Amino acid sequence: MKGKTKERVSYFFTHLFLIIVCLLTFIPIWWVLLTAFDKRVSLVSTEFLIYPRNPTVDNFIQVLSHPSFVTWLKNSFIFAAGTTIFSLTLATLSAYAYSRFDFPGKKAGLASYVIYMMLPTTAALVPQLLIVKYLGIKNSYLSLILIWSAANMAFAVWNLKGYFDTIPKSIEEAAIIDGASKFQVFTMIMLPLAKPALAITAIFIFTAPWTDYATSYLFLTDASKYTLAQGLFGWAADFKTVSWGVFCAGSIIMALPLTVLYLVFQKYIINGLTVGGVKG
Amino acid sequence: MFLHTDVSNINDTVLTKKNRNSLFYRMKKNRMAYLYILPAMLVVFTVSIFPIIYGIGLSFFNANLYTMGNGTVKFIGLKNYVKALGSIDAEFFVVLLRTFIWTIVNVFAHVTLGLIIALALNRQNLKFKGIYRTLIILPWAVPQFVTALVWKMMYHEQFGFFNQFLGLLGIEPIHWLSNGKIAFIAVIIVNIWLGFPFMTMVATGALQSISREYYEAADIDGATAMQKLRYITLPLLKPAMLPATILGTIWTFTNFNVIYMVTGGGPSKATEIVSTYQFNVLTRQNAYSMAATYSVIVSIILIIITLINMKVTKALSDEGVE
């Protein structure tokens, strides 16, 4: 009997502890939701609320009809989707070759990606700026899609190669006996089998351009090419023209797609990160 | 890059005709492979590696907006490196030291909190596990950039959440971001909040893979809860937690978003760490060569951390724990 009470008390404290932790993690998120979904007269929140007093979606309507915000959203999507499609295609092709062919130079090629991850990437910024200016592609979608693609390539290649390695070779061999070409094997057998790894890698690549402020700040000087990160950074620094409610609604729009994806794929993402080794 | 090694390989093996034939044969047989890897290699080399090498080169010159404008860029050897690390008073040295403090405090808090929460979540008959877990990993799932901006607003001295909350309790407002020391604590709080869920997730995964049998055997031997933790749980968590910790160390060391979004490195450079400092040197002072120098130094530190990582991982697998 005594042991049971003792256990109950210890479970009570475990619950108490976890409730406190949950409160701490949830308060900032709740605060953003409150600010976004509550109607305030003033630009900033001047009173302390625990639940919305006047629930409204006005802030979302305002932010989605704000011409600049729509431009940023469109630009961020083009940059992120472009980078994802471009680098995922190249990385998948590479990873397949590294996983399935035994060609001279394979080890050197793979090792060069590891070395590449250790190089001082930020030292490249000034030369990259000079090159982009020289080629006359400053403020173009292409310039930053290339830069973000290159930045994510090493991780993507290693991650996908690791996954391809786990697919048994016997499946392909059967297809080759049936007369399929290597390319057919790649597109019709390997790619469908690698769907989960492709999805995770795509989420990772997409995150970089979607949330990168520093690179867009350096490379994009034309307001019509600004990204969400640049736009919201500007809004956060300027409470005089943009209300906190509108800013929070914008933040939610920027964060929601990725948050949902990360929650849904959490297990795979954690595995991909810790098994995929050190990402520089 | 790899093509060069292939060519030299061919030269090395020129003596034995048989080998050369087999190498050529292998290259020919696998020529599709080169087609597959070439586009990615080409993009990485032209867009990244070539500029990086150029950038490393820049760190030995005196390039900035002024010297590049009037064509007086010249080779100055290791002067930039001496300027960065030459004296303990040097600004960069202070920033570097602060980065180490920032990294150690954060990673220690991430791992400890992550472990304790994972252990609590792992209790056998705990109810509402799913709800707790989802709420606890939320900070990890929300993009860091957005979180950092939101925290900046919460720290707002007049209208932010914290000072309003303190006001309700009748406590004087705190100068979260205008006092250097408090600002540094404020950004560390943000980063701890952001980082512990990842460690919780890694530890939870590892805890679930520990067989109950170990604990049952320990119970028969009359082990206390502390002994079970020390001799079963922690040693078996090591193979998962160690790589995650090293990964976390690298992420924290190079973190840019948290500090840049919340304080911008201020007030008066009091919260500057290497990544933000480097960015500010580049964008505010246009000191291209100095920024490149800092970049190279940071890279060398990261390579050292990675080498330690590889050694530790190897030691672990030699022990047979992996």
UniProtKB/TrEMBL annotation, chain A:
The chain crosses the membrane at residues 12-33, 77-98, 110-135, 141-164, 185-210, 242-265. It is found in: Cell membrane. Keywords: Cell membrane, Membrane, Sugar transport, Transmembrane, Transmembrane helix, Transport. GO terms for biological process: maltodextrin transmembrane transport. GO terms for molecular function: ABC-type maltose transporter activity. It is a multi-pass membrane protein. Coiled coil: none annotated. One of its GO terms (cellular component) is plasma membrane. PROSITE patterns: ABC_TM1. InterPro entries: BP-dep_ABC_trans_perm, MetI-like, MetI-like_sf. Residues 73-265 form the ABC transmembrane type-1 domain. The keyword Transport applies. The keyword Metal-binding does not apply. Belongs to the binding-protein-dependent transport system permease family. MalFG subfamily. This is ABC transmembrane type-1 domain-containing protein. It comes from Fervidicella metallireducens AeB.
TrEMBL record, chain B:
It is a multi-pass membrane protein. This is ABC transmembrane type-1 domain-containing protein. CDD domains: TM_PBP2. One of its GO terms (cellular component) is plasma membrane. GO terms for biological process: transmembrane transport. Pfam families: BPD_transp_1. It is found in: Cell membrane. Belongs to the binding-protein-dependent transport system permease family. The keyword Hydrolase does not apply. PROSITE patterns: ABC_TM1. The chain crosses the membrane at residues 33-56, 100-122, 134-154, 182-207, 240-262, 287-308. Residues 96-309 form the ABC transmembrane type-1 domain. InterPro entries: ABC_transporter_permease, MetI-like, MetI-like_sf. The keyword Secreted does not apply. Keywords: Cell membrane, Membrane, Transmembrane, Transmembrane helix, Transport.
